[in-house]
Amino acid sequence: MIHLHLLNTDEHHYFGSIANMYEFYDADTLGISYGSLRNYGLSYERPYQNNKCVIRKGVLLSKNTNRGGNIKRLHSL
Fold this sequence. Notes:
The chain is α+β, with helices and mostly antiparallel strands. Mean pLDDT is 89; it is low at 73-77. The chain has 4 helices and 4 strands.
């Protein structure tokens, strides 16, 4: 998961990938191009920051559920 913090508006947005973030924001808004951010090596331990934004890479934690198993059983009936 990619966490974008826009510093000028104090907005926070979350994306599934770096590419997904660039579907909503351009390089001028973020202050870094897609290729440069990919080359930067964004990671949990290494967020990217400039005077326009902070971009962090994290992990989305979710609750385990049995619902997927129930659906599979229903389809096999």
